[in-house]
Amino acid sequence: MDNKLKELLEQKTQDVWRETLMLHKRSPETRVASSLSCVEILVAMYYGGILKYDPADPDWEGRDRFIVSKGHGSISLYPILADLGFFPEEELMRIGQAGSFLGSIPDPVIPGYETVNGSLGHGLGVACGMAVGLDRKKSSSQVFVMVGDGELYEGSNWEALMFAGHHGLNNLTLIVDHNKISMLDFCDNIISHGSLAEKFRAFDWKVAEFDGHNIEEAHRHLEAARNDNSSGPIALIAHTVKGKGGGHLENDSLCHIKSLKPEHVDELLEKEERP
Amino acid sequence: MNNNIKPMRDVFLAGLIEKMEHDPKVFFLAADFGAPTLDILREKFPDRFLNVGIAEQNLINVAAGLALEGFKVCAYAIAPFITMRCYEQVKVNLALMSQVKEMNVTLIGVGAGFSYVVSGPTHHSVEDISIMRTLPNVEVLSPADWVAAGSYVDFIVDNPGIKYLRFDSQPTPAVYPEATEFADKGYNVLSNGSKACIVSTGYMTQEALEAAEKLQAAGIDISVIDIFKLKNPDFKSLADELANYEYVISMEEGFIRKGGLDSLLLNLINDHKLNFRFEAVGLDDNYKFELGNRRQLLANYKAESENVVDRIKEHFSE
Question: Which of A165, A181, B226, B252 is the most exposed place for a label (fewest CB within 10 A)?
Answer without folding.
Answer: A165
